[in-house]
Amino acid sequence: MNSDIVTDSISDAWNRTRGLLLARFDAGRWLKLGLIAMLGASVARGGGGGGYSQPASFPSGDGGSPGEIGPEVIGAVRDALGWLSDNIANLLVLAIGLLVIWIVLFFVILYVRSVFRFIFVESVAAAREPSIRASWGRHTGRGLSLLLWHLALGIVTLGLVLLVLAPLFASGALIASGKALPAVLGVGGIVALVVAILCIAMVMALVQALTEDFLVPAMYAGRCGVWEGWRHVARAWRGQFWNVVLFYLLKVVLAIGAAIGGGIVVLLSLVLLLVPGVCFGAIVAVIVGAGEQASAMLIYLGGPAALSLVVGGLVYGYVLQCLLLPISVFFQAYALSFVGRLDPALRTIGRTEDARVLKDARILTAVGR
Fold it and tell me: pTM score, two decimals?
């Protein structure tokens, strides 16, 4: 094991980050790289919950007790069911159309993000700042190849999970048929299923990490698709197993430090959410204070309220990405340098090039003064 390969990669990454962003502050470059990084980043996730509430009672049409259902309610339900029955075909067509539109948009967004993944790599690796339009033309094919690779990983993951859950489905069918399983077998099977799913998640996470840290740099440096990229990675890994392990160990340490610094930036940046929050709160206050006109106000102001949240969230995410840009550039440069040091044929950045970039930035700074 040659630890200098890893430590020199860290030095290369720092020199590249400093030469690209810190030696001479360029607001235009920060904003451009921030946009590219945001479009090539991971998607957000969300969740929700619920609680218990007292069942509502329907008022009766003849002034009866609150628990009784009046003829007006029954008639309204009958009319609604009749309308659904008469328009079921149109509703199915509408649902299928919306589903198709959602699927198309989903894949379009994934494709755009895959292409911008390589545009960000080029923005970090190139000696000169590339044009987004020109970079898009260069990486459309590689973006499609990377998208298909991610889809294949998703299909494999889903297939493995369904295969692991097959005994659970079979057990449920046996129980539903009245044939109960032994308690020990049931508990052991559940534990085995949990362990198997955790193993699948760990393997897929490892494949995803190798994709981001090795496959993408190899595809960029080799100007190739997924399969040729993996061939480049396999050649680069020969006799370098422990260097790869050390690469990830140091990356974990660096990621902890970056998480601390990035967490502070995130906490300080939360003040930016006050702007869309105040706008949304003002709109809600106007709707609530409208009294009898609340329904009409909701129709007119509901859209702007939702728009303020969406636009505010997008702007906040973009600004936050710009603030955290040195971290994104550093880790991308770290992977690019390490892959290039494992295989000189995949070399895209290095100490000599970054020193030249830093020198050019200092010369420009001196001329500006």
Answer: 0.73
- Spatial separation of the C-alpha atoms in residues 226 and 306, rounded to whole Å: 40
pLDDT at position 356 = 45
User: How far, in Å, are 30, 47, 53, 97, 119 from residue 50 at the CA level?
Assistant: 42, 11, 9, 30, 42
Helix-helix angle 88-125:325-342, to 10 degrees = 70
CB distance 337 to 230 below 8 Å: no
Asked if 312 and 275 count as a contact pair (C-beta separation under 8 A), the reply is yes
User: Do 10 and 250 form a contact (C-beta atoms < 8 A)?
Assistant: yes
The full DSSP string for 286-297 is HHHTTGGGHHHH
Please state, in angstroms and rounded to a whole number, the distance separating the CA atoms of residues 136 and 119: 7
Q: Among 267-271, 287-291, 344-348, whose mean pLDDT is lowest?
A: 287-291
Hey, what long-range contacts does 125-128 have (CB within 8 A, 24 or more apart)? 125/220, 125/221, 125/333, 125/336, 125/348, 125/349, 127/353, 127/356, 127/357
Q: Where are the beta strands (DSSP E) in the chain?
A: none
Rounded Cα distance between 184 and 119, Å, is 54
What is the 8-class DSSP label of residue 65? -
Q: In b/e form, how buried is each residue of 320-332, taking b as 16+ CB within 10 angstroms? A: bbbbbbbbbbbbb
